[in-house]
Amino acid sequence: MFRTVFRIICLGACACLFAFAFNVFLLPHHLLSGGVAGIAALIHHFVDVNSGIILFTMNIPLFILGLIYLGKKFVLHTIYTVTVLSLALKFIPIYAISEDIFLSSVIGGALYGLAVGIIIRLGSSTGGTDIISLTVSKRTNMQVGFLNICMNLFVVFSSGFVFGWDITLYTIIAIYVAGRAVDMVYTNQNKLTLTIVTDKAEQLTEELLKLHPRGITISEAEGAYTHRPRKILTTVITKFELNETKHKIKEIDANAFVNITQTLEVLGRFRRD
To answer: How far apart are CA 177 and CA 108, in angstroms?
Structure first.
């Protein structure tokens, strides 16, 4: 119960942070955040309708896509996040804190990228291209931030025709900074290989399988100095799962030898949720 309440509070706070970055750093300088939010800002430029209302309306068909590929729980969290985001965009005044467009593009991009990364890490999204990026990332291992950058090219070129190409260059900076910020926070696409030498292989295997739905390979080994029989567990996890996994290993076998290496690519079956 506490975790659920904490998650809801964090999602609401991050949605407000996104809206703050959008209305205070980006929109006053005609900078776009990319994705559906950027398209909403473009429509807002021509139609006297609040961008928050436009954002929520455009997300309705994408909620259906998320329901099919990402699950009911994810969609419910996303609907809540997008609702808070839409309200925050409506009530936070559009006012430029800084007249420096370069600083605004960097700070605004970093803040909204940070907000999006935390929101995704908490099992939700801001809707729009986040849903598409997560669906593709789940099946291809491509980074979410990189996918967002690719899909935002449409918004970038559109803003060039509407606001001028100088503004577009600053928009590219904001989108790039945001994409990097997302990938720094959301690390679920990064894989690690764990090689664990332990005397408590059966107990450790049982607990790790409870912890994460990951396959574990058990190999027989012998210590070079002691000639004692040992067992080696090999598994692949996401970077997001690392701290919890290390804690569990230490709890079961404090003397276990653990080698953690960065994994470039995983082929075959790897459960990502």
So the answer is: 9
Residue 112, CB half-sphere, CA atoms under 13 Å: how many?
A: 34
Joined together, the tokens standing for residue 85 give 């985001």
Question: What pairs with residue 234 in β-bridges?
Answer: 195, 217
- What span, in angstroms and rounded, lies between the C-alpha atoms of 184 and 131? 18
Q: How far is CA 138 from CA 25, 107, 129, 161, 273, in A?
A: 31, 29, 14, 34, 8
**Other beta carbons less than 10 A from residue 258's beta carbon:** 15
Alpha helices in the chain (DSSP H): 2-21, 35-46, 51-69, 72-91, 101-121, 129-140, 144-151, 153-163, 165-185, 201-211, 242-252
Q: What is the pLDDT of residues 194-237, one digit of tens each?
A: 999 988 888 888 888 888 777 888 888 887 887 788 889 998 88
Distance between CA atoms of residues 72 and 255, nearest Å: 41
First to last CA, the chain: 21
Write out the two tokens for 84. 């808070």
- Domain 191-263, CATH class in plain words: alpha beta
Considering only CA atoms, which of 254, 204, 207, 253 is closest in space to residue 233? 204
Q: If you search the block for the tokens 């909620």, which residue do you land on?
A: 63
Q: Is the pTM of this model over 0.70?
A: no
Cβ-contact 107, 28 below 8 angstroms? no
Backbone angles phi, psi at 246, to 5 degrees: -60, -40
Domain ranges of the chain: 2-185, 191-263
What is the spatial distance between Cα 233 and Cα 216, in angstroms, rounded to a whole number?
6
